[in-house]
């Protein structure tokens, strides 16, 4: 069965110039989009997005996701206006509420993230619609501002807004106010059933249907003709995520005991030696439950499960190995 919509997810595992080769290849093979991560203090999303947009013609380019705390809403709007100038109608604005402990460690207090997200999305949408905006909320304060385009297109910009959501309340908010929700990775397919209920609940508040909300989903995907190599690469990734991102650990359903044991080994940031020691604490059944890892056939079957549970476009995060093999495996243009 051909998977008709598919996207690529890039973080920091590859040299940026190599990433340009991957996105060109993904476009050639019929991929819909590339999403660039911005999570750990390693690589921002905007610079790679601009590079991807510059070397492609049709591929959509999304932020997966930028946080709403460290850029004010005027700068966020100007940033996505600029990206849309570079790649008209191909830019996707993915926003997230970030996560602790990282936010706290850089001095950000994530107070009332739902209200903060609502205010940012409300004002961002109006600014991208080229409106003059005055808004005084609890988190966003702007007075008589607009995107000050003197040279260029002044028409409203077609930049869909996605909220990166994991918990039920943020999923519901995404269903209510966003064009789409970027669903998280490292979760079992059953998680999606819960997520869809909350997205639909939010959509109904706005007089919309679940079908009106796009639902791309990040999926950890390790593909190799050598099954054990694919699984081992995923094991390294999972041990780091389970230790450093508690919201993902919670959504994955992994036991607190395993998380605490991994955390006792990994520092911040984790070293390769620590990861090598801790990765064996990740159970193999967990790898198969929350990722698409193994041979190309196994990976495709697992991704199809996420689609069957409401994902509208798998966003595949290659954890290493042959990225072009992953792209070939999921190419909508491939026969089969």
Can you walk me through this structure?
Helix content is 46%, strand content 16%. It contains 14 helices and twelve strands. The strands form two sheets. Strands 1, 2, 3, 4, 5, 8, 9, 10, 11 and 12 form a ten-stranded parallel beta sheet that branches. It has a two-stranded antiparallel sheet with strand order 6-7. Helix 3 (73-86) links the parallel strand 4 and strand 5. Helix 6 crosses helix 7 (189-205) and helix 8 crosses helix 10. The radius of gyration is 19 Å and the shape is globular. The protein starts with 6 loop residues before the first strand and ends in a 6-residue tail after the last helix. The model has no long low-confidence stretch (mean pLDDT 93).
